[in-house]
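Any chance you could type out some protein's one-letter sequence along with its backbone structure tokens so I can compare the two?
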Amino acid sequence: MTERRKRGLYGEMAAARYLRDEGYEILAANYRVRAGEIDLVAGDGAFVCFVEVKTRDPDAFFDPAEAVDAGKAERVRAAAAAFLAATGLSLPARYDIMEVTASPDGYACKYIKNAF
């Protein structure tokens, strides 16, 4: 496994832990269909939250959320539609981004609701 992939995996784990600590239920992780992939699917009782996790080093040139372009947002929406159809969940959907910054001291999370 590459260092980049490890950082991303640990970032997703930190994001899931952050959401659980905030009272969210993790419904799925790394949900993949032909249309796209969703890093985390979480429920807060009012919404099904489709969370794109972006992990970066603290010295990155841009914020992690800036890596989510229109194409990525569309693929997440398509995968979310497949998830909702497969599960039959009837809560409204929300599309969020979790920015995770990796450092030697651990991972810092910034949760952006209704990001796209």
